Amino acid sequence: MYPKHNEDFYGWATANASLLKQGKLKEVDMENIIEELEEMGRSEKYQLINRFSILIAHLLKWKYQPELRGRSWSGTIKEQRHRIERLIKQNPSLKHEIPEAIQEGFSDSKDLIEKETPIDLNLLPSECPYTFEQIMNDEFYPE
Length: 143
Known about the structure:
mainly alpha
């Protein structure tokens, strides 16, 4: 008897991987395997949205709080650009999700700005003011 999905995930995963390798398809927990694979895909998309959120928030802070610009912000901007680039390189199918991920990331970035800064959210645009090319351009810092 193999561990149950909701009681021992690691044991369940390794047992099902072993069953798949052995070709014992009738014994695998197909329903939960499918669910886990779908969740993995959603997780990659969420990661893309989250990275855009952090990056866009820092670009907006850069624009709206010029007196606070510093190495920490530019470092975060550079790091998020690099991580987005790597995520897309490792998951090319995410490319078609970029427009939606930018819009969702922009929406989430407002929450970060509200938590972290005194910036009046009414000053911010209603749509993301940056293109994907600008967001990912190492030379782009909004003035």
